[in-house]
Design a protein that fits this description.
Layout (H helix, E strand, L loop, with lengths): L1 H12 L7 E6 L1 H17 L4 E7 L1 H10 L4 E4 L5 H9 L4 E16 L6 E2 L1 H8 L7 H4 L6 E5 L4 H10 L8 E3 L2 H9 L4 E6 H7 L4 E3 L1 E2 L13 H5 L6 E9 L3 H12 L1 H9 L7
Parallel strand pairs: 1-2, 1-3, 5-10, 6-7, 6-8
Antiparallel strand pairs: 3-11, 4-8, 4-9, 4-11
Helix pairs in contact: 2-12
């Protein structure tokens, strides 16, 4: 409730859009972390306000393009079409990687599976493996909970596995909604940012470890040491994009994210600082 109150307060402040307000929009994976960073930033920079909203990486980049955001949070790299549109408008961009994230694949705690390979995930998510029987011995239909196509997480998983998602995959509005659905579906599988599992409560759900091959070591997205070593198959950088001409305006929040205090918030929120 505290974070929700702060988010609402920050969004109200954004109505007075001026040089004392930095508007950040985009990735739902990053939104809770962005709120925590903004709250701490404002406590030490009372003359500056930060407004935060989610909606997906694609929305954040579009908002940056149309001038309704100063920073676009994106859990994926900007794509060629987006770059072309910025170029056509004569807008120069720069980017900052402020943290690393790991994608957690989550199932009901009652499902008798603990580890999975990328090949098995690909078969499930594209819809060619429709039943859990070959992996768990139980005759249960697979229910897929994913994100909309404008989500950076959706885009990352799709590209990492080299698949198109099953048309039967349920498109959810955000990480929290996926977790809630899985808690009541004993044959479901979904993917969320690892930070949402750490702080969203793990009762009723299970995070699968991932091994690249049957002979390799299974790695958890919650293992900070393995993430730091780059050993988890589904880890990725988290981006912030901004217009080159707006650098001085957004520099204070970027500097805070790189500071010792900012790095601690990133770590405590279940994400991984960039070394």
């Amino acid at each position: 409730m505290r974070c929700l109150f702060w988010l609402n307060l920050l969004m109200l402040v954004s109505c007075s859009a001026d040089n004392t307000t930095i508007k950040i929009k985009g990735s739902d994976t990053e939104v809770n972390l962005a709120v925590q960073l903004a709250e701490s930033f404002h406590s030490t920079n009372p003359g500056l306000f930060v407004s935060i909203s989610g909606g997906g990486s694609g929305l954040g980049i579009a908002s940056l393009m149309n001038g309704t955001a100063d920073l676009a949070n994106s859990s994926r790299s900007i794509n060629d079409l987006e770059l072309k549109l910025f170029h056509q408008r004569g807008i120069n961009l720069d980017s900052f990687i402020f943290a690393q994230d790991a994608i957690a694949f989550v199932v009901s705690s009652s499902l008798t599976i603990d580890s999975i390979t990328p090949a098995e995930l690909a078969a499930i998510l594209k819809g060619s493996l429709k039943n859990w029987s070959s992996l768990t011995g139980k005759d249960l239909p697979v229910n897929i909970y994913g994100r909309q196509s404008n989500s950076g997480t959706h885009d990352f998983v799709k590209k990492k596995l080299g698949i198109d998602f099953s048309p039967h995959a349920k498109e959810m509005n955000g990480n929290a909604q996926i977790l809630e659905a899985l808690k009541s579906d004993n044959s479901g599988i979904g993917y969320v940012g690892a930070g949402y599992v750490i702080h969203g409560g793990s009762k009723g759900i299970k995070v699968l470890t991932v091994y690249e091959t049957k002979n390799s070591k299974a790695v958890s997205p919650l293992d900070a040491a393995m993430i730091a070593a780059g050993k988890y198959y589904f880890q990725r950088p988290l981006f912030q994009y901004y217009k080159t001409g707006s650098f001085e305006k957004v520099k204070p929040i970027l500097d805070f994210e790189k500071s010792t205090s900012g790095q601690k918030i990133i770590r405590d929120a279940g994400y991984y600082p960039v070394n």
